[in-house]
Amino acid sequence: MPPLVEVSGLHFRYGKARVRGHDDAWTLRDLTLNIEGGSTLGVVGESGSGKSTLVRVLCGLLHPQQGEVRFDGRDIREWLSESQTDLRRRNQIVFQSPRRSLDPRMSIRRALGQPVRALERRVPSDTELTEWLERVGLGSEILRRYPHQLSGGQLQRVGIARAISVKPSVLYADEPVSALDVSVQAQVLNLLMDVRSQFGLTLVMVSHDLGVVSRLCEEVIVMKDGLIIEAGRTSEVLANPQTAYTESLVTAARTVSLAAPDR
Amino acid sequence: MLEIRDLSVSIGPHEIVHIDALDLPAGRRVGLVGESGSGKTMTAMSIVGLQPADAKVTGSITFEGSELLGRSETEMAKVRGGDIGLILQDPARALDPMMRIGRQVSEAIRLHMNLSRKEVVDRVLSLLAQVQLPDPEQLLRRYPHQLSGGQQQRVLIASAIACDPKLLIADEPTTALDVTVQEGILELLVQLSDERGMGVLFVSHDLGVVRFVCEEIAVVYGGRLVEVGPTTSVVRTSRHRYTESLLAANPGIAASDELEQYVGRRLDVIRGSVPALGDFPTGCRFRDRCDFASDACREPPPTMISEHGHRFRCWNPAGGDVDAAAG
Amino acid sequence: MPDDSAIQPDASLADLKRVFRAVVRLPFPLFLGAFLVLSFVFIALLSFFWTPYDPAAINVPDRLLPPGSDNYIFGTDRLGRDVVTQLMLGARNSLYVSVLSTTVAVTIGALFGLFVAGTGPRWQGPLSRIADVGLSLPGILVAFVLATKLGPGNTTATLAIIVWFIPVAARVTIGPATQVLALDYVEAAFAYGRSRRFVLMNHVLPNIGPLLIVLASVMFAAAILIEAALSFLGVGVQPPTSSWGRFLNEAQPLLEAAPYLMFFPGIAIVLTVLGFNLLGDGLRTILDPQQARTGIF
Predict the structure, then answer these.
(1) Do A46 and B178 touch (CB under 8 A)?
(2) Does residue C30 lie within any of the structural domains?
(3) Of A14, A143, A184, B21, which is the most buried if we count CB atoms within 10 A?
(4) Tens digits of per-residue pLDDT, C251-260?
C-alpha cells in the first residue's frame, strides 16, 4: 500500500514577497515526508520551525510554491480543482485554542453541524448530533449552549467531535492540549487515542511537548527552521537522537520531566 | 522571611482562596502548584497587593516581620520592585513595546534607589550581564520586539531583581516559551537565587518545572493548600490524592529504555474537571473527583504531618495513615 | 374522541404570557431607546395628518411668543409659526434623511469593507486606498455637484451624506474584519470547505455586528447635523419646508431675543440621537449570546 500522504521537495512561503534566492524567506524548505495510513505521527519543533504551517499545507489550506503533495495517490492540486469537497472531508483539523476554534456567536448545535452541512450538503439530525457528542463523552444538553458557557476541555471535545463528524481519513491536531489544564489534558489525549483506534484514523499531531508525543505517536519528525532534521520511530529518536538539536530538545524536556531522577 | 497565615481572598460570596499557613524562609525556593482556577495566582498577587479591586483579603502576610496586608497603595508600590520583585507570564506583553530596554530595566532602579544617572546605567549594564544577555551596551537602545521570547524574559528578570529584592515572585514565567529556552531561564533563576540568597515563590501549573526549580512544593486545589513539603518528598512520596493524580496525569518523557512500552498507552486521568467557583463540594474539595473518597471526606480533613516536614490534608492519603498533627 | 376545545384558549393564553414575559425581560436601554425612536417616528408620521396649526400659516403679529403663551405651548418663531407644528414637520425630513442615509451607507460600506478584508494581503492594500480616496473627497463639494444635477432637497442631502459616509464605514469595517478572519474558527470553516463568501457573511459579519451598530448610532447623529448644515447652505430642504437642523440654524441669530427657539429643536435632536444610541446598545445586548436572555428567541 502506498503511503496515504506523500510529500516531496515541498517549499512554502507566506506573503507575496518575491525574494530572490533567499533561503531564509521560506517557512518550509525542501521537505520530503511520507505518512502511512493508520499511523500516528508527531510533529515536533520549537516556535518558528514551521510545524503548524506544514499541517496546513498537508490539509490543503495553504498552497506550496514548489514541490509536490500527494494525498491517496493524487496530487493535492488535482484534488483541490476537481474534488475539493472530498479532500476536505477526508482531512480535518483540531486546533490549539478551544475558545478560538468555535465561533462565539454560534450555538454548539449549529457549530457541530457545520462540516456536515458544508461537505455533505445536509442538515444533521439531533440524533446524530447527540451521537457525536456521546462519542467524545459529552451530553446532549450541550447542544443549546454557547461556547462561553463551556470549559476549555468541553470545547476541545466539541472540536474533536466536529472534526470526526464527517468521518475523515486523517485527523490533524495542532497542539490540541497545550491550552488545557493538566488534569484535562490527559482526558483529551486519551480521547484522541480512543477516537483514533475506533475510527482507524491517521493521526498527525503537532506538539512542543515531547512527553505527550512520546505517549501518543509511534513515529515522529523533528523540525527546525522549516526543515525536517530528524525522523523515525518516536522511542528510537528520543532515546538516541542523531542530531545535536534533537538532543538539546530531549535534554531540555527531560529536565522538567517528572520521570527524571532527582537533582 | 514570608509568612502567610489564615489568608482568605473572597470575591463576592465566594471564598476563592484560604491558605491556613505557608512559610517561605529566606533564600528558599518554594513552588505553588495548581491548575487554572486553583487560586495560586490570586494568592501570589495578594502578597503584593495586586489582587483585583473587588477582592476582599483578610488574614496575615508578614514579610520580614512586618505586615503587608492593609498597607496603602503607595506603601505597596514601594515594596513592589524594591523588596519584592515580580515576573509574570507573557514577557511580550509585560514589556512596553514603545520603550527601549535600557529605560524599562532602569525604571525600578530610578523609583526605588537614589543613584546618579551614570550609576543607574552601570547598574543596568551589570544586571543585563547577570541574566546572561549578550552585548548589554547594544541592548540598552533596543526595543522589545527586536528580542526573542527568551531574551525578553531575561530582561524582565533583570528588571525584577534590579533593586536586590529579598523575594522574587514568578508567575508561570516560562509557560509561553520554547522548551530549550525554558531550560535556560529556569537555570538562571536557580543561579540568581543561590548567588543572591534571594527567595523565590514560583507559581506554576507545571509540576515538572516546579520540581526543577524549587526546594519545597505547595500544592493548591480549589484555593486550599492540600499538600506542602520538600520537593523530593512531595514528588516521590506524595500523600494527597490530588497530588498523586496530578503527577500521574503528565509524567513527561519516560526513561529511554521505557519509552517504547508507553507508546499508545492511555494516561491516568483525574475524573471530571475543576468545578466552577460556587460548585465545590463541602468538606474535602477534591472528593467528587477522587477515586479514594469515603464518607469521612464530607468533613474537611485535618492537617496531618508526615515525615520530613511534609504536611497534607487528606482522610485517605496515599501511603497509609499517619498521625494527625497536634493542634 | 378527546375534547380539544378546552386546550385551545389555554394554549394561546400561555403563548401570550410567554411573549409578555420575554418582552419584559428585554434590557431596559432597548425599551427606552425604542420608545424614544418610535415616539418621534410617530410624531413625524402624525404630521402628515394633523398638526396643531396649519403648517403654512404665517402669523407675524404673533411672532416670537415665549413658551407657555396662551395658544402656543412651545411658543412661536420669528414668523409667528407655532413651534410645535414646526417640530413635527421638521421631524419628517430630519428622520428621513438621517435614517435612510445611515442605513444605506453602513450597509454598502460594510459590505465593501468585508469584501476588501476577504481579498487577502495581496489586494487589500490597493483596495483600502480606494476607500481612502473616498474619504478624502470633500463632502460638501459632492453635495453641491449633486444639487446642480438634482436640485436641492431631501434626496440630494441623503445622497450626499451616503457618498460621504460609505468610505468611513468601509474603513471602520476592514480592520476588525481582517482580525476575525485570522481567528481559528474561520480557519476551521475553510477546513471544512466553506467558501470565502459564506465565511464573510456568516462568521465575520455577525462578529463585527456590534461594531457596526455602534457605528450606525454615531453616524446617525452626525447625519442629522450634516443635513442641517446642507440645508443651511442651500443644498438640502428649502424654506418653507423645514428640518430640525434648519430650525436650529435659523434660531441662532435670535439667541438673545428668543433663546427657547434653539432649545426645542436641540432637545428633539438630542432625544432622537439618544434614542438611537440606546436602541443600538439594546440590540447589541440581545444579539450577544454571552448576554442573551432566554425568551422568544
Answers:
(1) yes
(2) no
(3) A184
(4) 888 888 888 8
Instruction: Decide if C191 and A107 are in contact by the 8 Å CB cutoff.
Output: no
Q: Quote the pLDDT of residue C2.
A: 45
Looking up cell 502506498, which residue turns up? A2
Nearest CB neighbour to A46, from listed B180, B249, B265: B180
H/E segment holding residue A205: strand A202-207
CATH says A5-255 is which class? alpha beta
> How many domains does the structure of chain C reveal?
1
Query: Nearest CB to B253: which of A151, A216, A257?
Result: A257
Instruction: Delineate the domains of chain B, giving CATH numbers in brackets.
Output: 2-83+163-232 (3.40.50.300)
Preferred mutation among A90, A114, A145 to probe C, highest tally of C CBs within 10 A: A114
pLDDT at B33 over 60: yes
Asked if residue B323 has pLDDT above 60, the reply is no
Chains B and C physically touch (3 or more Cβ atom pairs below 8 Å): no
Query: Nearest C-alpha of chain C: how many angstroms from A207?
Result: 17
Closest CA to A185 of A161, A164, A211, A204: A211
| Most A-contacting residue of B253, B261, B279 (CB-CB within 10 A), to test interface | B253
Inter-axis angle of helices C260-287 and C244-251, nearest 10 = 140
In a domain, C32, yes or no: no
Q: What does the pLDDT look like over A45-73, one tens digit per residue?
A: 988 888 999 999 998 888 888 889 999 98
Going by the DSSP 8-state scheme, the letter that residue A123 receives in this structure is P
- Asked if A257 and B178 come within 8 Å (Cβ–Cβ), the reply is no
Is C191 within 8 Å of chain A by CB?
Answer: yes
Q: How many CB atoms lie within 10 A of CB A36?
A: 15
| CATH code for position C197 | 1.10.3720.10
ipTM computed for the complex: 0.85
Q: Higher model confidence: residue C103 or residue B238?
A: C103
Confidence of residue A165 (pLDDT cuts 50, 70, 90): very high
- Per the domain annotation, does C106 fall within a domain? yes
pLDDT bucket at B325, cuts 50 / 70 / 90: very low
Q: What is the DSSP string of C16-41?
A: HHHHHHHHHTS-HHHHHHHHHHHHHH
> Which of chain B's residues have a Cβ under 8 Å away from the Cβ of A201?
none
Q: Which range of residues forms the domain containing residue C102?
A: 41-49+87-287
pLDDT higher at B30 or C54? B30
Taking CB atoms and an 8 Å cutoff, what residues of chain C touch A97?
184
The partner residue sitting opposite C122, judged by closest CB among A16, A93, A159, is A16
Q: Which stretch, B187-201, C13-27, C214-228, C255-269, has highest mean pLDDT?
A: B187-201
State yes or no: pLDDT of B95 exceeds 90: no
Nearest CA in chain B to A248: B180
Q: If we measure between CA atoms, which residue out of A229, A203, A182, A204 comes closest to residue A49? A: A229
**Does A contact B via 3+ CB–CB distances below 8 Å?**
yes
Is C294 touching A (CB cutoff 8 A)? no
- Chain A contact for C193 (CB, 8 A cutoff): yes
Q: What is the pLDDT of residues C117-168, one digit of tens each?
A: 988 777 788 888 887 887 787 777 877 888 788 887 888 888 888 988 998 8
Touching status, chains C and A (3+ beta-carbon pairs under 8 Å): yes
Whole-number pLDDT of residue B201: 94
Sequence-ordered alpha helix ranges (H) in chain B: 40-47, 73-79, 91-94, 101-112, 117-130, 136-140, 149-160, 179-196, 207-213, 231-236, 241-249, 259-262
Q: Do C188 and A97 touch (CB under 8 A)?
A: no
Q: How many CB atoms lie within 10 A of CB B25?
A: 12
Domain ranges of chain A: 5-255
pLDDT in tens, C268-286: 888 888 888 888 888 888 8
